[in-house]
């Protein structure tokens, strides 16, 4: 968001796409979720950052407040329906509405072919990556469709799953493909309620999830020069820019879109 300085030298914020809106971001304690939360706050939104670890959420809030934004942290487990409903209720109690929700919480468990995938890892990915998004959608839509202006929801999926596949990641592939399909189905179900639902599907980005075992960020940079048509990972700011676009009025006619951001890997 643009800012200007008054004659007294104090900074004032100019209007932006999300001024006076309330945004909820899950998985906001690090990585893409943290960057998304900061980007919404920089464009005028009051942001609720949610996740399971209070300390990391507090760090996100501190960063937003240092940048002049407004944010609060609420701990919640997206696999528990009561937590998710309470998260939405507390968001509305604090700020009066829920205008945008970003279902970003997710986990990766991989490194084994289908026949050797541990059942608990499979169940963990289903619980967080799929059920967590479903529960989020249910609680968020229930609130948004009661609001005069509805709302917008962006789910964070992956280029792995519906768009491309790699060996040894079957559980993650299946759950993220499910997120892509669930997004499209929910979008059709609820656009008549005034709720726009879309997804972003990042490829490798500048987070710990894209690092292989024992790999440093420098090693990853060298590897991506060969593996990615773009020659690098995406920055979390690039992913956040896509999320904000889908949530904004600029994307008013986008319904059920799954925007792939992977440097051409799945082209």
Protein architecture, described:
With 267 residues, the protein is an alpha/beta fold. The protein has a single domain (14-261), classed as NAD(P)-binding Rossmann-like Domain (Rossmann fold). It is built from 7 helices and 9 strands. The chain has helices spanning 31-42, 54-66, 81-95, 119-144, 170-190, 217-227, 236-247; strands at 3-5, 11-13, 22-26, 46-51, 70-75, 100-103, 151-156, 195-202, 258-261. It is globular. Residues 1-14 have low confidence and may be disordered.
List the helices and strands and how they pair.
Blueprint: E1 3-5, E2 11-13, E3 22-26, H1 31-42, E4 46-51, H2 54-66, E5 70-75, H3 81-95, E6 100-103, H4 119-144, E7 151-156, H5 170-190, E8 195-202, H6 217-227, H7 236-247, E9 258-261
Parallel strand pairs: 3-4, 3-6, 4-5, 6-7, 7-8, 8-9
Antiparallel strand pairs: 1-2
Helix pairs in contact: 1-2, 1-7, 3-4, 4-5
């Amino acid at each position: 968001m643009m800012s200007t300085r008054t004659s007294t030298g104090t900074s004032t914020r100019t209007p932006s796409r999300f001024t006076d809106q309330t945004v909820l971001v899950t998985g906001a304690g690090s990585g893409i979720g943290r960057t998304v939360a900061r980007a919404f706050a920089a464009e005028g939104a009051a942001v609720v950052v949610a996740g399971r670890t209070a300390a990391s959420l507090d760090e996100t809030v501190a960063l937003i407040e240092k940048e002049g934004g407004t944010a609060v942290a609420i701990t919640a487990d997206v696999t528990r329906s009561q937590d998710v409903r309470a998260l939405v209720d507390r968001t509305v109690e604090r700020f009066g509405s829920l205008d945008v929700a970003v279902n970003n919480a997710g986990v990766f468990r991989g490194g084994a072919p289908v026949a050797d995938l541990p059942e608990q890892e499979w169940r963990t990915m289903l619980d967080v990556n799929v059920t967590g998004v479903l529960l989020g959608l249910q609680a968020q839509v229930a609130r948004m469709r009661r609001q005069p202006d509805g709302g917008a929801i962006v789910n964070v999926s992956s280029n792995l799953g519906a768009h491309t596949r790699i060996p040894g990641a079957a559980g993650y592939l299946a759950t993220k493909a499910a997120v892509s399909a669930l997004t499209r189905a929910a979008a059709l179900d609820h656009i008549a309620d005034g709720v726009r639902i879309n997804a972003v599907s990042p490829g490798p980005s500048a987070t710990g999830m894209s690092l292989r075992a024992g790999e440093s960020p420098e090693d990853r940079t060298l590897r991506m020069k060969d593996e990615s048509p773009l020659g690098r990972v995406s920055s979390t700011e690039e992913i956040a820019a896509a999320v904000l676009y889908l949530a904004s009025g600029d994307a008013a006619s986008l319904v059920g879109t799954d925007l792939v951001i992977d440097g051409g890997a799945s082209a």
